[in-house]
Design brief:
mainly alpha; 10 helices
């Protein structure tokens, strides 16, 4: 059991931190929501009602979709784009899908290779792009969830101000939706770009996300 925990400690720790932070977000968001309710002369709501509300759903989904957009773009664009000196990039001259031999698929698969990497045909083609596909689907799903929850929250505010609600399609053209969306996209894109570039010159000893401390700045695609 101890070995199993150690071998999966990264996923377990991040999963635990996710649940902890999500719970803290719910508590902080609930308190903030009720403060605004009291300011507007409205009764406070329970925590259970808040975490099932459109307001909380929109806040959560808008962050999820931007994170998975980041992963989707990074997985797909690093196939073809290069950042010389970054451990997050392939070496110059190695961009592209690579050969079957380099990817260990089909006739070049090893005994322990995933079954669909050995099968060939559409199964191997699908599996060869499954990570990017999964990131893209989760991004689109969470973006859809954000738009639905955001539209509901937006209409709650409009009804409180005695304005007519808008349709979901109309909400997609509202500044509120794009403000929520773009403020997350720009921060994620900045984070990815800054990490890829800072990792050229800076090091974190022992981290697989960093080059070894003594590696030249110009070395590309080398991890610690």
């Amino acid at each position: 059991m101890r070995r199993r925990l150690r071998d999966n400690s990264l996923g377990l720790v991040f999963g635990g931190l996710f649940l902890l932070v999500l719970g803290l977000q719910a508590l902080a968001g609930h308190a903030d929501f009720n403060q605004r309710q009291l300011t507007e002369g409205l009764p406070p709501i329970s925590l259970g009602r808040y975490v099932t509300s459109a307001s909380f759903g929109a806040d959560v989904a808008e962050n999820w979709q931007s994170e998975y957009l980041q992963f989707f773009l990074y997985v797909v664009l690093t196939v073809f784009l290069i950042q010389k000196g970054s451990p997050e990039s392939k070496a110059p001259g190695q961009s592209g899908l690579e050969s079957d031999k380099e990817q260990k698929i089909g006739a070049y698969a090893e005994e322990q290779s995933p079954r669909w990497a050995r099968t060939g045909g559409w199964r191997t083609r699908l599996y060869s792009n499954s990570l990017g596909f999964a990131m893209g689907v989760i991004f689109l799903g969470s973006w859809l969830a954000q738009s639905i929850a955001g539209a509901a929250a937006f209409n709650e505010e409009r009804l409180g101000d005695q304005h007519d609600p808008v349709s979901w399609a109309r909400y997609l053209t509202e500044p509120d939706f794009w403000n929520r969306t773009l403020q997350n996209w720009q921060s994620e894109l900045l984070a990815v770009a800054s990490f890829a570039i800072l990792a050229i010159y800076l090091r974190q000893r022992g981290s697989p996300e960093s080059k070894p401390v003594g590696t030249p700045h110009t070395a590309t695609g080398i991890e610690g």
